[in-house]
Amino acid sequence: MSKRARLLVVLLVLVAGGVFLYPTFNWYYMVPQDQKELAAGSKEQIQAYSRGRASRDLVELKDLVSKDQDAAIPEKFGFLKDKAEENYKLAKRDLPDSWTIAAVLNSLGSEKSVFSSLENEYREHLLGLKDASGKILQLGLDLSGGMSILLEADIDSLEKRLGHAPSSEDQNQAIDRAMEILNNRIDKFGVTEPQIRRQGSTQIAIEIPGAADPERVNTFLMGKGSLDFHIVDQEASEQLTQYFNEHPGDVFAEDGSIKKMDFLNAGSVVRGYYKKDEYGIDQLQRYVVVSEEVGLDGSHIQEALVANHPVTGKPVINFTLDSSGGEIFFKLTTANEGNTLAILLDGKVKSMAVINEPIRERVQMSGFDRTEATNLALVLRTAAMPVDLKINNQQAVGASLGEDSVKQGLKAISLGFILVILFMLVYYIGSGLVADIALMLNLVFILAILSAFNLTLTLTSIAGIILTVGMAVDANVIIFERIKEEYRLGKSAEASVKAGFRKAFWTIMDANITTFIAALVLSQMASGPIQGFANTLAVGIVSSMFTALFVARLLFDFTTEQLKVKKLSIGWRI
Question: What top-level class would CATH report for the domain 227-367?
Fold first, then answer.
């Protein structure tokens, strides 16, 4: 590969590293702590905050108009000016000479429209931060704290599924299987170091590092195996809607459940049809009458993938049924051709479609947003829970090591890294500077890769980073000593560099590849902190080999071939 091509590769990797690392840097250093805490709340809390702020801002704007309507719009309401300017352009009106409070509010229309614009600004900002918090390098429980959840197995649901009272062995097998599924789901959601352990005979304790966000728990617990297909009674649904419109006070019984209407057929049940609003919160649209008998349950689903609808572009879930499920679904759709099929997730109607023709193994679902479709597809792929789980307790936990311990650990790591850099610089002089540049780039690349894959950083992961830094230094030492040997033989600086890198290549590759294989095996077989250490070590090995053999070589070639350096600065006695 030519030097120009190698330089292009290094620049592309640097740009990619900066892109991957920016969200993490921005989150930890640029976003205020109070904004982080707001974004970590549930969507209901974000909704309440956004509407509360919008109400206070609206009152403030009305007070400002009453005092001086020709005053300039305050800077903190600059987003309203942008919206007003957009409205002027859409209406093809001339922009005002100055954006006064009156001009801005008049362009936005009614008071309700102003409130909506204010609410949208806060909602989009916080939901954007919430989305960004899932794309950064997470800190583990020992560094930043996280969530502690205690789940309780619902033995009644297990008895219903088995058809008989479960024995102690049945309970143990069901809970062990539930722990395995939970671990698989949490890992695939990007949290690589969850602590999942059994507590007592029917409880599961989970500790999840990162922000104390209840939505994360609901994400990997969603579905719980309760994905069912039911046939819709369209005529009864229309009759029910008409009745509820005429008698809105007769919808619910005293216990809060939906009343059983006399006109409904035996074997029919009423379920709510829900769609997500701007906050991603399920909102009831109407009630639907469906057959009580489950036409097909989610346990027959083998594979589930998210795609885009070819016409609408909206997310859909394509899934494949097993052979028995395909046969059941074929009979169901054949017998109900022309009727409506409802898809129920945890008792909520999430999607409905008319059966136009019999369907066997391959089915497509719609009616979900991108996040919900991705999460549901993951739940379907990782199998249904063998037993329903209830959240007994859920709370935020603090860092186990304490802030002082973390600071001391980070100081020790920083000091060690600085000493390594100084040693290379003092011992190898000019070549040591090349090694130091490679080492610093190595650290940047490691953090960028960890950030890109949303991995979790704990003290064990930091230990893996320190180990890879040491291995990267070792690779540079091997290369420099080989170059010294060639240089002592009387070869030119350029020839010594080429021969040194060539002779050191396989020595470095052999040592790193064997360690990389061990790290991969460890990452697959281990779990928790050990898996985090193995993942970080594997990433570090790849990065250190790239910087030692590729970046350092490029820097040496630049000095010897472009700058025409004739004498190498690679040691005091050279």
Answer: alpha beta
Tokens representing 241? 């809607």
Give the pLDDT score at 61.
87
Percentage with pLDDT > 90 across the chain: 6
Residue 191 pLDDT level (bands cut at 50, 70, 90):
very low
Q: Which residues make Cβ contacts (< 8 Å) with residue 346, sequence separation at least 6?
A: 222, 223, 224, 226
User: What is the rounded distance in angstroms from the CA atom of residue 277 to the CA atom of residue 208?
Assistant: 28
Could you tell me the residue ranges of all domains in the chain? Answer: 3-25+404-562, 33-133, 138-222+393-397, 227-367
The mean per-residue pLDDT over the stretch 243-250 comes to 76
CA–CA dist 263, 241 (Å, integer): 12
Phi, psi of 284 (to 5 degrees): -65, 130
Contacts of 505 (CB under 8 A, 6+ apart): 549
User: Euclidean distance between the first and final Cα of the chain, in Å?
Assistant: 30
CATH number of the structural domain 138-222+393-397: 3.30.70.3400
For the 3-25+404-562 domain, the top CATH level (class) is mainly alpha
**Which residue do the tokens 């590769």 mark?**
9
